[in-house]
Sequence to fold (178 residues):
Amino acid sequence: MLSIMLVATVLTRVGFAASTPAQKCAAAKIKAAGTKVLDKAKCEQKALLKSAAVDSACLAKAEQKFATAYSKAEAKGGCTVTGDAGSAEVAVDACLAVFLGGIAGDAKCAAAKMSAVGKKASAKAKCQQKAFLKGTTVDPACTVATARCRSPVPGPDCQRCAGCTAHRSADRQPATPA
Fold:
């Protein structure tokens, strides 16, 4: 979530008209950042479940997927800012580090929280992407929908999913970004 906001700040936003090439480029970059958060969160989740080190091949795959998507966005042309992949990567990685530092609990619980964080960040990126394509601000209904956990709380001894403050029954309902 923080990474998505930081990436959105790094990318230059253009006017409020129909989707321009610049808006399409920015939207593709936002999508790439959101996907990177999700993919790296999955790598971390697997490591947490195994109480092991994160698989470097998994992280490398996430990095490569991000680099490819970012390059494709810039290759299509129309980008207001180019060569900013490094700034976006730093924002995403810093955000993931903050998430990891704030997640506690047994392995199963921590892994479930990491999964929820990745899914939530990816969903928020989709909200940002839609806003960029429409040339508008982010729809509050879209971001509210992503505020719910996207998976059930794994057990009674586990702390709530990362970022969720809603009632337990709301936690169990899937979030559907608008």
Notes: Residues 9-16, 149-178 have pLDDT under 50 and may be disordered. The chain has one domain: 2-8+19-171. The radius of gyration is 17 Å. The chain has seven helices and no strands.
